[in-house]
Amino acid sequence: MKLNHINLTVTDVPAAANFLETYFGLRNQGGNKGFTVLFDDDNLVLTLMKAGQVSYPGTFHIGFVQESEECVNEIYQRLKDDGFEMKPPERSHAWTFYVQAPGGFLVEVLA
After folding, report:
1. Rounded to whole angstroms, how far apart are CA atoms 2 and 69?
2. pTM above 0.90?
3. Angle in degrees, CA 32, 106, 64, rounded to 5
4. pLDDT per residue over 38-55, tens digit each?
5. What angle do CA 79, 80, 85 make, to 5 degrees?
6. DSSP per residue, the chain
7. Residue 49 dihedral angles phi and psi, to the nearest 5°
8. Residue 66: CB partners within 8 Å, gap ≥ 6?
9. Contact 110, 65 (CB under 8 A)
10. 60 and 106 in contact (C-beta within 8 Å)?
11. How many domains is the chain partitioned into structurally?
């Protein structure tokens, strides 16, 4: 069985969708300021639903596994150049870093 749908509640649907499209290649399949549908390369359906507040548990995050440490470094640099604040990649369970996405959820990038 394959997981193929996830819904995230976010405070800003357009900003969250743009972030996921820009840095992680998700494709927007339409929506509005309150709800949008994104797909990844394996056709995972990621829906974003607007809420006034978002309160995920402290360790909650979504992750994007990259092909190499160099890819992780490239995404980190793009985010940093665009003004996102985060700690640089480090060796943990993988070569990884975390970034707070617009809309109120955490993203891990790792290889």
Report:
1. 26
2. yes
3. 90
4. 999 999 999 999 999 999
5. 100
6. ----EEEEEES-HHHHHHHHHHHH--EEEEE-SSEEEEE-TT--EEEEEE-S-----TT--EEEE-SSHHHHHHHHHHHHHTT---PPPEESSSEEEEEEETTTEEEEEE-
7. -125, 130
8. 72, 75, 109, 110, 111
9. yes
10. yes
11. 1
Q: For residue 84, give the nearest of 63, 71, 96, 98 by alpha carbon.
A: 98
Tokens 């990259």 locate to 66
Look at residue 86 in the predicted model and tell me its pLDDT: 98
Q: What is the CATH number of the domain that holds 81?
A: 3.10.180.10
Supply 46's token pair: 């990621």
89 is written with which tokens? 């990649």
Domain region containing 86: 5-52+61-110
